[in-house]
Design goal:
Length: 304
Amino acid sequence: MSLSTPGSSTPASPQHNQQAPTAIAVSLQGVYKEYNNVPVVNNLSFEIQAGEMFGLLGPNGAGKSTTIRMLTTLTKLSQGTIHVAGHDVVCEPWQVRQRIGVVLQQLSVDNDLSVWENMEFHGRMHHIPKSRRQQEIDRWLEYVELADRRDDRVKTLSGGMKRRLQIARALLHQPDILFLDEPTVGLDPQTRRRLWEIIRDLNKQGMTMLLTTHYMDEVEYLCDRIGIMDAGRLIELGTLAEFRQKHGEGMVMQQQGDRWDYQFFPTLEAANAYLDQQLDKTGMMVRPSNLEDIFVELTGRNLD
Ligand code: ADP
C-alpha cells in the first residue's frame, strides 16, 4: 500500500512488500482465549475487508485488547484461526508482523530517547535500509506534525504528541493494516479530534484499520463497520445504519423521575405518530436513535 502525506505532491516511496493486498484483510474464525480456564474471548468470528475502517466497541473487560493482541501475534489463541494480510498468526507470525502496524494502549515509546531515536530504533528493528529509513522518518514525523520536536526527549511531549509518535512509528515500515487499541483514551477533546483526522486521512488513502474503543462517538465518527463486544462475545456486527434499521430508527423517550424510559420505533415518523396519539405528552420526546441507545438495548447498561 502506498500512502502520501497531506499536501505533498510527491508520491509515496515504493513499498518493500510487493504482494497485492488481499480483499479480506483480517479474518477470525471461532476464536477463543482463556485465562485460568475462563474464556475472555468467546467464539469470535468476523472479517475485515481491505481498506475498511472497523471499530470494535465494548465496555472495559469486554475482551477488545485481548483480541487485538491475538490479531497482532502478541498473545496466543486458545482455539480457532486468525488470518491477517493472508497469513496465519500462529504459523506465520513474522509475515504478519511485516504487514501490520500496531499502536497499543500502553505507551510503548521510550521516554528517555528523542523522538528521532525512537523512530530510528523501530526502523532498524524492521531492517529498513538507512537511506530509506531517514527519508521515511522525516516523512512520517512531518505527517504527524512532530518534525520540529525531532530532537526532544519523548518525556517532554504531551500525551497527544506521544500518541502521534506511536502512530508515525507504526507506519514507518509501510504496513497494510493498522491496529489501534483505544487510540484516544485519556486525551482531551481537541487532541482526540486531531488524532481522528489523522486516522481518517490514513484510511482515506487506503489503509485498512481496526480500532478498539469504549467511546461511542469515536466509532460513530470514524468507522465503516462496527463490532460490539460484551463479556468476550460479539453481540452485534454491521454498520450503524444497519443497527438502526434493525432496532428502530426512531425513539420515544419519557422522563420518569430522574431516569428516561425509551421505546424504539421503526422510523422517526412512527415515533412521532405514537407521540401524537398520547393524551398526556408530559415528559415525552421523540428523537432519532443512536449507537448508545442500541448498546443499552443490547446489554441493558451504559458504557462509562
Ligand atoms: P478490554 O480491552 O475490552 O477492556 P481485555 O481484553 O483487556 O478487555 O480484558 C478482558 C478480560 O480478560 C478481563 O476480564 C481481563 O481481566 C482479562 N485478562 C486480560 N489479560 C489477562 C491476563 N494476562 N491474565 C488473566 N486475565 C486477563
